[in-house]
Amino acid sequence: MTDQFLYAVEVMINGLMAGVLYALVALGFVLIFKASGIFNYAQGVLALFAALTLVGLQQGQIPFAHLINAVLGTEVTHFGWHLPAAVAIVLTIGVMIVLAILIERFILKHLVNQEPIILFMATIGLAYFLEGLGDIMWGSDIKTMDVGLPQGASVWIEDNSAWLGGDGFYGFFVDKLDIVAALVAAVLVISLMIFSQYSKQGRALRAVADDHQAALSVGISLRFIWVLVWSIAGFVALVAGIMWGTKSGVQFSLSLIALKALPVLMLGGFTSIPGAIVGGLIIGVGEKLFEFTIGPMVGGATENWFAYVLALVFLVFRPQGLFGEKIIERV
Amino acid sequence: MNMVSHEPYVTEDGRTIGGVLMELKNITLRFGGVVAIKDISFDVREGEIRAIIGPNGAGKSSMLNIISGFYTPSEGEVWFEGHKRPQMRPFRVAQQGIARTFQNIALFQGMSTLDNMMTGRITRMNAGLMAQALWWGKAEREESEHRAAVEKIIDFLEIQHIRKTPVGRLPYGLQKRVELGRALAAEPRLLLLDEPMAGMNVEEKEDMSRFILDVNDEFGTTIVLIEHDMGVVMDLSDRVVVMDYGKKIGDGPPEEVRANQDVIDAYLGVSHD
Asked: What global pTM score does this model have?
């Protein structure tokens, strides 16, 4: 095997891993879209907010410290304790559930039976509100996230793949964090699929997405389902926030990765959980391989636009995405 | 037959009609300045088929929406199983054992017939979220019990061949039947049917009539139905409420109602359409 080929394989593996991270964000979008037909623009910010909260709680940061100091003239910043990662994660899940309840209570409840575009606009508002809230609560500096996930190159994989190439080849470079992310994503997807296919709430969730009136008539509480689905979306956002945060630090550009989820969704279909994963993987591998092979010829930076072009091509041939529900139109 | 008495009695075809299951007292419904229903009272007895008829715009569907909780009456009381019902959201009404179908079919278009009917069982599923996550075996057993109940209804309605078909692809008549099936899956105390035969051809109407009679006969389900077609109603129902312009103009067994002059006027006299 030539080294060139082995490098391509390595690029592909890393593309797969990057794809998993895209997929994690896309998953949150799919969940909310499935349950309420809303494209939740705030999903990326939700991930940012979850990550900020987690780091803040873990490091014992006092929320609204700047505000408190400005108003009261004090100099407080930290509580002085350091929480174990597990405790901080559980507390953050609690915060995300409370957030879901507040979102239902103050936004969704008042927008029942409104056009999807109205709900979409509401989520844009929510996104910027949450971004501002996160800033005021936890400050705007870049933070490192450390919840004890392994990081750095997996030596085992490097050692055991070195024999594939010649003298200049030292084995595949794979980040351990990426492997963890892939495992977590797999577990998450499988449990979400089982939940949505076989549990009472999962079925209710699909019912609400399909027809509000009919859902009410079979005894489903719309409000409970909305709180539930936003809580799950918040949890998925937390997982995505942990992975992205550990990889590249908790910073406000985290909310922009949400935009990369868009082509993933176009590819996989807005309504399919496995679609989000497969779409993420295709985009991840596609853009890395494209950059590796074609990039040098066109001056690089193809990763910025490749995903969108790929999604556009897909839209032409399969508007419902790879796994989306077939669009049935009776005339 | 004495309608004032609430003693149980046996009909000519051998079904037992019990005491009062639901009573509507002086119901009035206004939308802004428009009065959709004006001071209407009637009761529904256990085991009977009760029809509400009347010309277009008489307020029949509004009445059904009040019973199922989609509308809140401006005045008046709804009594169910001997208790006055507080103002209630539709999903709570469903949980109390009142199932319904809609005039314009409200099915979950993207789901299969089977899944649609399984949603009908939601009010009967007990396992909570955590229990389902932690105690998989129990949830699984519960699921298969519900599945068995639904399969029985599928057999009953003769829709085995479309079990896995997304309902959006089914012809209109079959969709109506699936919607009836979803309501039946809840094993309701009271079944509300809003124009179950609207838009059907003669053959489909006959099928649907047969199913309605069989549901009532075999499961003992109490049924309130709205129908446009006088002929169908007269054949099916034990007692009929006739509405016109939001008011009650007749109430009683079909043969009595048919002879009522107000009813004849409403239907044959001046056209309201």
From this structure: 0.80
